[in-house]
Amino acid sequence: MVMKMIRSVKALFSSKYSKQCVWRIKFKSVLLLIAVVTFLYISEMINHFYEVDFKKFQYPLEGNIEKYVMQLRDNKIPSKQPINVYKYEYITDCLQKCQDKTPLRLVIVIKSAIPNFERRYVIRRTWGYEKRFSDVGIRTVFLLGNGNDTKLQAKIEREYLLYRDIVQANFTDTYYNNTIKTMVGFKWAVSKCPYSKFYLFSDDDMYISTKNLLRYVRHPTKYPEYLTDVENTINNGRLKRMKRQLVDFDLPDGIRFYSGYVKQTSPFRNRFSKFHMPLEEYKYDSYPLYATAGAYILSKDALIDMHYASLYTKHFRFDDVYLGILAHKIGILPYHSNYFHLFKVKYSPQNYEYIIASHGYHDPEELLQVWNKQRELGSA
Ligand SMILES: *[C@@H]1O[C@H](CO)[C@@H](O)[C@H](O)[C@H]1NC(C)=O
Ligand SMILES: *[C@@H]1O[C@H](CO)[C@@H](O)[C@H](O)[C@H]1NC(C)=O
Ligand SMILES: *[C@@H]1O[C@H](CO)[C@@H](O)[C@H](O)[C@H]1NC(C)=O
């Protein structure tokens, strides 16, 4: 369309056309111009011109909120009242999950939806399996909101009695309430299960290799090379290849680690997009760096600080961007890993050797097959 416009404008200034023809072309290009501008207006894409440079980023509550986060962490009364509290009541709270206060390695918090019974069933038997490793403490819960189907709700209650792994709260379970779901998960983890070193947040349509995830957090900057590093040593004049020791590294306590597939994107101003973002809601030309929502991992300190930061940060509809805003406001830089995949990675044993997360497992049957295969091969 743009090319056509340029061509007709060029044609306007070219002399080889007759007068009548020039008029016709002029009329056509004016029409085209009107159409383009109208489209920009109707779709609100024109708003790109009114965006503010991200360098000027401020997001309510403006100013330094780290002070209040520290006060809350230290169990002090914060010098300023929170501006954003997710006040939802638990319908089921899984209080017994972490009641024994055993120090854990990993808590897996899965955003699910009410009708996804089969996905939960398979996840409990694959990457959510708490007893996967005899020497690694893992706990798994599913997050749900409130539906409006009493039959389904009765089924959820039976599921809860059977597995005791559903955290359900009284917000309406819809796509645009994703941030509420996520922050209910943060709040639950901080208040009901704070004895773990790491927290994985994930969707219920993911393939996750719990084994690779645990390897990753041992040495994020060297994953997966540290697993395969070989040393060449000369021994009695002969070249010998040795595997390096794997066990001498772990993220130190107190580190605020927030990692996944990290992106920086710009708001969609097109009104017809699912991700449409009006200027009134967010005026900058870019979002802060964030880990995309499918799967990301946090150390305990990142979890706690981001939870408290949310109390001083205005609600935002997209949960992953919201977490990016929280991290930005308290100076946590998300750490990117190529082994978290936003899209489905075509299955082959080699492709999945080091994968931590792959999106696109809507079919629980397929997840079960792929996961079992990779488990046999020692990489799930
Ligand atoms: C959730 O429960 C709380 C406490 O009972 C109540 O104040 C709130 O209005 C409820 N919210 C919804 C959306 O039902
Ligand atoms: C509630 O019911 C309506 C009508 O059946 C449906 O369109 C809507 O998606 C339901 N909402 C939830 C949260 O299940
Ligand atoms: C989100 O949940 C709240 C509380 O239940 C509800 O009032 C609101 O309509 C929901 N929003 C959307 C977009 O579904």
Automatic annotation (TrEMBL):
InterPro entries: Glyco_trans_31
EC number: 2.4.1.-
Membrane topology: Single-pass type II membrane protein
GO CC annotation terms, alphabetical: Golgi membrane
Protein name: Hexosyltransferase
Domain of life, source organism: Eukaryota
Pfam families hit by this protein: Galactosyl_T
GO terms under biological process: protein O-linked glycosylation
Family membership noted in the UniProt record: Belongs to the glycosyltransferase 31 family.
Gene Ontology MF term list: hexosyltransferase activity; UDP-glycosyltransferase activity
